[in-house]
Amino acid sequence: MIEKEYRQQLIKKQRIVIKIGSSSLTHEETGDINLDKMEQLVRVLTDLSNQGKEVILVSSGAIAAGRRALGICEKPKEKSVKQACAAVGQARLMMLYQKLFAEYNQSAAQILLTKYTINDSTSRQNAHNTFLELAKMKVIPIVNENDTVATDEIEFGDNDTLSALVAALVGADLLILLSDIDGLYTDDPRKNDKAEFISIVPGITKEILAMGKGAGSNVGTGGMSTKITAARIALGCGADMVIANGANARIIRDIIAGKTIGTLFLADGEGGIKLKDYLRREGQESPQEFKDKIPGIRIC
Ligand code: GLU
Question: For a 10 Å CB count at each end of the chain, is N or C smaller?
Fold first, then answer.
């Protein structure tokens, strides 16, 4: 198949996880929440839900919103400060999301996860059941890491990885990562003007891994390396993944309409880290147990 045909396949995607980074939700100059962008996002997501698609939003922005509310200018380094910012910011973020979704009569739910939720079979099962139930009720879950309780041992640390694990958990067929970059380049385009854009990635090769060495922005957490980790998890679990620029949420519609936008990573069930390997590496339970516990999950 040629790229255009792969892109056309995205039209059929039914269960879609969309991750939006803090940089795509805030004003670059002030760090304040960008209401216009949030409104766009909410409208596009509601419209996807109206089309009968199952949508899950993984939204960053809690720390950024809290830090702004508390008048903290620099990105906090100390964990307790980050947690305090998240505690203030997550509530603000949800208040805004609820208000905006309510305008379209769309219900939204908050789901806060830690690595413990994914690693512990009972918590994972409960999270899985909740996601499925919400999908039946046509509610859009808004997921974030439970930053206020996440300690070093149980934190994902970035929402790229979290969103890939959510995609695996619910058996999503598409993961879209919206960030402040257009997609994957052969090198960091901010430093190397010869860096070439890559539109389609048929599998994670050593060369692709080597390209995942990008820096993060002032507000977000993940760089290109966390996006490549996300790709390895998502692809290995049967979901295609797209990295695209979240400057305008309408890009989501264009991606799902099959337009050639961002970088498309193709799920092939081979070559990437599979979720079972991810869990095994983390020293967790056996893949078989994972598979038995969650029928919806695709363990390759
Ligand atoms: N959970 C963090 C927040 O809401 C974001 C982590 C990330 O940006 O990847 O601020």
Answer: N
Q: How do strand 15-20 and strand 54-59 relate by DSSP bridges?
A: parallel
User: Residue 109's beta-bridge partner residues?
Assistant: 141
pLDDT at 220 over 70: no
Q: Parallel, antiparallel, or unpaired for β 263-265 and 197-198?
A: unpaired
Q: Is 126 helix (H, G, I), strand (E, B) or coil?
A: helix
Q: Is 163 in the pocket of ligand 1 (CB under 6 A)?
A: no
Q: How far apart are CA 195 and CA 9, in angstroms?
A: 28
Q: Where are the domains of the chain?
A: 3-272
- Residue-wise over 113-151: b if at least 16 C-beta within 10 A, else e? bbbbbbbbeeebeebbeebeebbeeebbbbbbbbbbebe
Instruction: Tell me the three state secondary structure of residue 19.
Output: strand
Evaluate: CB of 272 within 6 angstroms of ligand 1.
no
Render 144-158 in DSSP notation, one character per residue.
Answer: EE-TTT--GGG---S
Q: Is the CB of 228 under 6 A from ligand 1?
A: no
CATH superfamily of 3-272: Acetylglutamate kinase-like (3.40.1160.10)
178-211 pLDDT, tens digit each = 998 899 998 888 888 898 999 999 988 888 888 8
CA 171 vs CA 14, 61, 230, 297: distances in Å: 10, 25, 14, 5
Output the CA angle 56-57-62, nearest 5 degrees. 145
Residue 217 has pLDDT above 90, yes or no: no
| 23 CA distance to ligand 1 middle (Å) | 10
Strands 240-245 and 174-179: parallel
Q: How far is the CA of 19 from the centre of ligand 1 (A)?
A: 10
Tell me if the pTM is above 0.85. yes
